User: What shape does this take?
Amino acid sequence: MKDYFLCDTCEDKFNRRGEDWIMKQCYRGRGRFWLRDKLTPEKVMMAHEGSSVYPGATIEGIDVAALTYFPLSVFWRPAARSWQLRGQEMPALRLGPYEEALRVYLLDLTPFPENVALTVWVSTADVPLFATHFPISERAETSIVHRFYIPGIQFTLSVGKQIDDSIRKGCIATGAGNPIFASDKTEAVPRDRFRKWLLQHEPAGGIVPMMPNVSVE
Assistant: This one.
C-alpha cells in the first residue's frame, strides 16, 4: 500500500527518525530479530505469566526515540488521508483531536501529546508472525485503542482523558524507564486479524500467503 503523500523533507524525516532503524530491528526471518536479542533475561524489570517488562532507557542499542516516533507516524498517516489496498478503500483511522496532536508532535513543535499512551510489545514466539496489517481501532473501557503490527512487534496507541493508570505507566515515551514489553501473546490479535483479512480477500485459486511463515488454520 503506497501513494504520493509526503514532501521529500517529511519523508526523509520519517525515515531518519524511526523507519530505517525499526526495519532493521524487527523480525527479519531466519532467526534474525535484533530488537528481541537485546532484551536479555538479566535486564528484566518485571515478569509475570509469560510476559516481561524491560527498561528501554538503559539497554544498550535500543533507540527509544525511534520506537516512539515511528509508530506515531504510522498511526497518523491513515488518519490524515484515505488509502486504498487492491482497489478497496481502507477505513480511516479516527483519532479525533489527537490527529492534530500527533501531527505537531511529528513536526517537533510540541512534546509527546497529553492523554496519549504508546505501548510496545515484542514477540517471544519462536517464529513470529511474518506479516503486517492496516492499523485497527477498538473501544476499551476507558479509552480508544489503536494498534498495528509489523513482524515481531506490536504497537498500541491508547487515547482519551481517562486512560487507565497502568496503561499510562506502560507508555514507552513517558513511563518510568521507558518500558518495553515482551510476551508470547504479542501476536494473538494480529494473527486473528490477519487470518480474517486473508479469508475476506481470498483469490480464486485459494489463499496465497503474502509472506513466508504465514498460514491459515
Notes: Residues 8-200 form one domain. The chain has one domain: 8-200. The mean pLDDT is 88.
